[in-house]
Design goal:
By secondary structure, the protein is α/β, with parallel strands linked by helices. Helices cover 44% and strands 14% of the residues. The chain has a six-stranded parallel β-sheet, sandwiched between helices.
């Protein structure tokens, strides 16, 4: 799958984030054993990653396990942790072959020592790759992310490293997860719900939102390609008027 030739690379989203929702409903609809929907959802990631790499997306961030998911039944949490561990084992050789950097965001202290070590090892083995990054959010919450960044700034004030006047959106933004990555341009939620569920709240401040009824295990690179095409046709104003954006684009085309 590639972008239509009529679309310029300048409108390609640099950073796509996906809330992979609908696994349980998929499992129930297909009469799968407990956890079967999550297993099916794990396999849906590969073609999406390959599409993003092929068309030149710089970062793909997927929501694998939220900070709120710890409230789910213990047997489901245990299964999800096993699947996350298996996903790392399966993805690492692919990341090495396709030269994709593998990263993780979230509160790692809540994870098992074994899983933390596996995540760190995968990050170290792929750290040199620059073509694309696959980011997996595990035990992640957007509110936790912002609060954690604020805590770091507060510690710097307490230690005399900065003053209160040094705290602004730029300094706070340097301490959130993925501060070194482009902001989210395009945020997709599968599964039919219309909410962000505490995902990348800071990073997605100006993201274009896409919602689909498709359950995550049924989500394909073709549907993603259609969304990217629509993204390219949207006008992103960032607080400016349509006229200002048009003039700015004309100037960019002439330069």
């Amino acid at each position: 799958m590639t972008l239509p030739t009529s679309l310029s690379n300048t409108v390609l989203p640099r950073h796509i984030a996906i809330i992979m929702d609908g696994n349980n409903r998929y499992g129930k609809a297909h009469h799968l054993a407990s956890g079967g929907g999550h297993i099916a959802g794990k396999d849906a990631l590969d073609p999406v990653v390959e599409y993003c790499r092929e068309v030149g997306v710089e970062v793909l961030t997927v929501f694998a396990f939220s900070s709120e998911n710890w409230q789910r039944p213990a047997n489901e949490v245990a299964l999800l942790m096993q699947l996350l561990s298996a996903t790392i084992d399966e993805q690492l050789p692919r990341m090495m072959r396709f030269e994709i950097r593998l990263r993780f965001i979230g509160d790692r202290l809540k994870l098992s020592a074994e899983l933390q070590q596996k995540m760190q090892a995968a990050e170290e083995k792929t750290a040199q790759f620059t073509k694309m990054s696959l980011v997996i959010a595990i035990s992640y919450g957007g509110q936790w992310d912002v609060a954690n960044a604020a805590k770091q700034l507060a510690a710097q004030v307490q230690n005399g490293e900065i003053t209160l006047d040094d705290i602004n959106k730029e300094s706070l933004g340097q301490h959130v997860q993925l501060h070194d990555a482009p902001p989210v341009d395009m945020l997709i939620r599968t599964g039919g719900d219309y909410r962000l569920s505490n995902f990348l709240l800071w990073q997605s401040a100006y993201a274009e939102l896409f919602f689909t009824q498709t359950l995550w295990p049924d989500f394909t690179d073709k549907e993603l390609a259609a969304m990217v095409t629509e993204f390219a046709q949207r006008q992103r104003r960032f607080g400016k008027t349509s006229e200002q954006v048009a003039i700015q684009q004309q100037q960019a085309d002439l330069s």
